[in-house]
């Protein structure tokens, strides 16, 4: 018995909600930003559409912005972590 050449499930396109910045070291952040979304009625027979966000969690959004700002400040400093660039991946 041989394995099939194509997987049963595969992504149609790249989709990555969140924020990303490359660096020598990547820091991760998980922040609840979407407080309420519209109902999702995927049929699983066609490409799903993006689910619109109806309400933001302001606290989670501030935490995300704070992380991005702090990493930018560290990267701009010549005294903190010389010759190292921090990046981030926030979901």
From TrEMBL:
GO cellular component assignments: membrane
Membrane topology, from the record: Multi-pass membrane protein
Main location: membrane
Name of protein: Uncharacterized protein
GO molecular function, one term: G protein-coupled receptor activity
Keywords annotated in UniProt: Glycoprotein, Membrane, Receptor, Transmembrane, Transmembrane helix
Keyword Transmembrane tagged: yes
Subcellular location: Membrane
Highest taxon of source: Eukaryota
């Amino acid at each position: 018995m041989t394995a099939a050449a194509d997987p049963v499930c595969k992504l149609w396109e790249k989709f990555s909600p969140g924020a990303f910045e490359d660096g020598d070291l990547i820091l991760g952040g998980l922040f609840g930003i979407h407080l309420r979304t519209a109902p999702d009625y995927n049929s699983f027979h066609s490409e799903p559409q993006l689910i619109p966000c109806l309400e933001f969690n302001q606290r989670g959004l501030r935490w995300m912005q704070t992380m991005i700002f702090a990493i930018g400040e560290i990267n701009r400093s010549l005294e903190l972590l010389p010759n190292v660039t921090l990046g981030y991946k926030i979901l």
